[in-house]
Amino acid sequence: MDRSYRILPTYTGDVSGAASALYELGGMVVIHDPSGCNSTYNTHDETRWYDRESLIFITGLAARDAVLGNDDKLIKDVCDTAGYYRPAFIALVSSPIPYLNGTDFPALARIIERRSGIRTFFVATNGMHDYVRGAGNALLKIAENFVEKPVEPSRGPESSAGPAANCRLKVNILGLTPLDFAVEGAVDRLQAILAQHGFDVLTRWAMGSTLDELRRSAEADVDLVVSAAGLQTAHFLEKTFGIPFVAGLPVGGFTEPLMEALAEAAGSGGNTLPCRDFRKAPAPSLTHACVIGEAVAAGSYAAAMELATGKAFRVITSLEDSAELLGPEDLFVSGEEAVEDALKEMELVAGDDFYEAVCPAGCDFISLPHLAFSGRNAVRDLKTMDPYDIEKLLAGRHLLP
Fold it and tell me: Which residues make beta-bridge pairs with 204?
């Protein structure tokens, strides 16, 4: 069957992605779905449940309510609960059943906001897309509703060459959730790398920053997009406040080119996608190495591996909203058969361990565990992984010159 899965898992869904993106921001996330589904959406891939709580609720949608559309009960329950907790905002999230029933969530959001006096919005999910779509939509809603125009210009005195030479540049990190950044300390390490190269992190969307801090995002000089989930917000901040963005992760030897691209973007105001454009682009028939996974991370690892090994790498992804991040020789695939077909000529594959099951015989495999793909199966390996040390990832494989 086309686009079916019998060996590989599927990526975390959009509902979970939205809940994860909003987890730390002090709001109340209301998922409209039958009782008992909350753990499915929020605990299997959400490592923060172990040490901190979040206001994420399920509505307990009953069959009678679903068929007859008992919205009054939903509105009352949400308003009563919000009156008790007084969250910073209310986010309504749709699961498959209300989506199929045609529930009017934007209208519900307007009614709830009017009755509760709390900013309320609908995150467009339906349980039929992956976490990149859900997290991306959720972060965009935060940007649209809360980012404020800076009182003063965000950039210091400028010449034709850009910001003043002695000014440290301020950067927003966009697209942070444990679904892509589950390694303990990975986000702090990312911030430290940026600091070493002259950047002050203004905000972290959305791990390690409060909602009040995110309000100040328009003060940044440049945005760093570290996963596809941050791309929608990057485009919004560029269009609304003129902040350029750069996409990539500081992995191995790719770190210096990425930092240079950040500084250049802050000076010129132009967007760049080093995770896509830095790599070589040989004919597909000459490329027998690939990285498969989320597009920004995969492109960054591919670039770092090219620098370390001299081999040309392609990027393969099954995640939505990644087209802008893929080069002409990269691939978007949908379904297990398409993944197997894309990998059949590969001699070297880097990706989550589950992908090794569909690699051709004799293929050399590099483990890049990904919580959004293999869930709790990846946790043990993630504890020992250094996501920025490419030499450690390639150690013992006779790939380094």
Answer: 173
Residue 347: both structure tokens together: 């001699």
Q: Where are the beta strands (DSSP E) in 71-216?
A: 90-94, 120-123, 158-159, 162-163, 169-174, 199-205
Among candidate residues 255, 274, 293, the one where a domain is terminated? 274
β-bridge mates for residue 317, sequence order: 332
Residue 400: inside a domain = no
- Residue at token pair 């058969």: 337
Dihedral (C-alpha) 12, 177, 19, 338: value to the nearest 10 degrees?
Answer: -20
Task: Give the dihedral sign, CA 185/190/195/196.
Answer: positive
Q: pLDDT tens digits for 247-275?
A: 999 999 999 999 999 999 998 889 999 99
The answer to whether residue 140 sits within a structural domain is: no
Asked if residue 136 lies in contact with residue 233, where contact means CB atoms within 8 angstroms, the answer is: yes
Element (H, E) at 350: strand 348-351
Domain boundary among 213, 240, 274: 274
In angstroms and rounded to an integer, the radius of gyration of the C-alpha atoms of the chain is 22
Segment holding 213, helix H or strand E: helix 211-214
pLDDT digits (tens, 9 = 90+) for 156-198: 444 444 444 457 899 999 999 999 998 888 999 999 999 999 9
The pLDDT value recorded for residue 160 is 41
Residues 301 and 381 reside in one and the same domain: yes
- The verdict on 290 and 382 lying in the same domain is yes
List Cβ neighbours of 114 (8 Å cut-off, separation of 6 or more): none
Dihedral, CA atoms, 349, 354, 181, 148, nearest 10 degrees? 90
Helix axes of 231-241 and 131-146: crossing angle, nearest 10 degrees: 30
Element (H, E) at 52: none
Please give the Cα distance from 220 to 216 (Å, whole number): 8
pLDDT at position 206: 92
Distance set, CA 354 to CA 44, 318, 350 (Å) = 17, 14, 11
